[in-house]
Amino acid sequence: MLQNKGLTVIDVYQAWCGPCTAMQPLFRKLKNETNEEKILHFVVTHTLSFYHTVDSEEELRYEGPSEACFTCAQDSPNRRRQVHTHIKSTGLKGRAEADNIVTLQSFRDKCEPVFLFSVNGKIIAKIQGANAPLVNKKVITLINEEKKIAAGEMVRPQYPDILLIELEKTRKKPERERYSIAIIKPDAVLKRKAQEIKEKITMAGFVIEAEEKTMFTEKQVRDFYSQIADQPDFEEFLSFMTTGLSNVLIIAQEKEQDQVEENETELKETSEPPTESEVKKWDSLQKYLEQQHISQFCDVEDDEANVTKFTDVFFPDFKIAKGKKLQRTLALLRPDLLEKQDDVLKVIKDEDFEILMERQIVLSEEEAKMLCKEYEKENYFEALIEKMTRSPSLALVLLRENCVQHWKELLGPRTVEKVSEYHAESLCAQFAMGNLPINQLYGSDSMEAAERDIECFFPPENTLALIKPHVTREQRAEILKLIKEEGFELTQMKDMLLTPEQVGKIYFQITKKDFYKDIVEVLSEGQSLVMVLTKWNAIVSWRRLMGPVDPEEAKLLSPDSIRARFGINILKNAVHGSTNHYSATVNSNALFEEDAGEE
């Protein structure tokens, strides 16, 4: 591709987020308006990875797609693997997947678009970001230069070298990331020390890559703690670990440069000198926990084979999820756009977003001003706030790779007045309506802003959930799987034999009913699994998942509900849940506050 004469424009992109679709209208415009096919090249560069194993000087074994690629007859035996790119020219524009091209490795794992400009095979300029006016100006300038050079009106300038690989980084062989498994034990979770422990871990220069809240099975405890299985109190420990909620963490050592930059930032923001634990880079998580006097609450596994085994058990999709870089963002359709919400939802689906949560909401004045802050200096600001606070908007939580940046690119400019040929396909242009010249959609500005926005519009709520004694261990596991799939977070959980006093606190609203004594009897037959579940609208969501109280009725009205699948009769109906916010608070406090207060 770089052998083309004249100017070639290359869109450098990541495999996980794809090319920059927001720039396509500009490239089409330039192609049509300049009509300089001999000077200006927009070539689709489809990059595929081809791996060859060199078995001898003469023999090469091809591994990869069935399409032919460039040969490597000159390869040598000591070069065991080679990556080639197969390039197809289709006449639109140049794209390069940074993941598969060694020369572009410095752009890997960057979500910001990068455009390279090549003249007669040499990269002479680079623009970072989807800055359409700047890219347009650069292309026009370079085309005019090429015309003047061809006409003999100017000498080709000496362009500075554009380094695509930082030399300091290329000298270092990348180290394979090593992980540890940490288990915050049930007593720490019950005493609500888990968050404190996680904060201490991150302060010491470690990164929590993944977290799973779970109740261990007997087999998992025996596998993880096999080194202490011969100790006399192991069976007591086994019971302790299998009757409460544990936090399982994947821990990585923070990269040195990241830690230096973070420490420098913290030192600038505070006048107090850092403590020894804040500046020391700890190589051993176990030693750090012992120094902080919290090792009794958290066990660590560093052995690579065991870490791999337990990662496969608790985090089977860890490698896939880490590579995908999934993000959440808040999207909002303003009131005027609700009549076309189906069209917007189709775009969202077509762009591979997953909608995690949605709700119609009439904003308060404070919420409206927060979302419309960018318009506060406009003369129509008050009219906008009035509209936002009188009619419903549709709030969505979206999930996707590179979610925040991709949604912002789709939105386009903040006002219709700024829509030009560069943003002709943006959502701002497609859904311009109403009497105010604003973008009818909103998106969070950053990952941090997205999390704040989501918590504001979808505030988490707690509810008490109970799995009754007649439910088998296998059925429990299925119910817990359903809970996870519905997006609930397990905030607290313990296996316990409920006393009549505790049952009275859970069912305090019906203690005078004739059938109350039957409920006490059923719950005294064995261990119940008691949980605090957390998510937005948790009380209603849990009651919907449970289904009607009578399992027979549930089978007719809600056949996929928990009670329809696992209930036996109206008393042994598998699960229980709080009816409202007050009962959820009373129930949770009754069963978990005592544990939280213990030291």
Automatic annotation (TrEMBL):
Transmembrane segments: none annotated. Residues 257-280 are annotated as: Disordered. It holds the Pfam family NDK. CDD domains: NDPk_TX. It comes from the Eukaryota. Residues 326-462, 463-599 form the Nucleoside diphosphate kinase-like domain. Residues 265-280 have a biased composition (Basic and acidic residues). SUPFAM superfamilies: Nucleoside diphosphate kinase, NDK (SSF54919), Thioredoxin-like (SSF52833). Belongs to the NDK family. This is Thioredoxin domain-containing protein 3 isoform X7. It comes from Heterocephalus glaber (Naked mole rat).
